[in-house]
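Notes from the 1:1 (GR / supervisor)

We went over the backlog. Supervisor wanted to see one worked example end to end before approving the batch request, so GR pasted a single chain during the call. The sequence is below; no edits were made to it. Supervisor asked that the structure be written out right there so they could see what the output format looks like.
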Amino acid sequence: MKNTSRRDTFGLRIAFGRRFAFGRPGASGRLLAPAVWTTVVVAMMAALLAPRDTDPGLSQLSLTVSDFAALDRGGPIETAIASLGLVSLLLLAVARRRLPAMRGLPSVLLAIWGAGLVLAAVVPTDPLTTQLTGSAYVHRYASVAAFAALPAAGLVLARRLTSKAGRTAWWLRALSLLAVAGAGVMAYSAGPGGRELIGLVERVMLGCEVIMLGVLGRYVQRMGARDGSRWLGSEMAGS
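Structure output shown during the call:
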């Protein structure tokens, strides 16, 4: 009877651990990747499709996302960008616990990205036909800081990750370099280039950066699942 009771107790502990694993290591990252990727898709759809509702006659090739957002205050573009910033800060909070390589400079840079997006979404900019106000300058510099910080975070993190990260480091590095190249082309277009194709370049750069978030979110989720498996294994061994 005593052995049977021990086996029953052991089985209950395993079942309980599986059922309530969300309170243990790794559980907080389970829904992280789906949440990040969903927000990424929503943000990209807003950047690509929302301008058609604002004014179908305006060109997405020559106008930036901020230009369209200025014409539709509180619309889907600003909502999606603010959501992307908040999800990025959530990703940062989880990644700091799950990924030692994320601590330090990458955390600071990712925080700048997330906070910069939220600030750029909350503080309005001005249409191109008007003289820029103080809020427009805040919006501009918050956007510049955000789009510069994320590729830098990706490059630093890619260098810190070990070979166990698989192709995650490669993707982070490649997407970061593409984003940096896009930022350079965009800077040229905004100046000597006369804003030629600035909208297209910005959307490509934005695409690289938000996909980078999805890659990082997926990796952090995998790390969380691995930690959860280790905890369950230790519980089984201790029984």
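Supervisor's comment: The first helix runs from residue 2 to 19.
Batch request approved.
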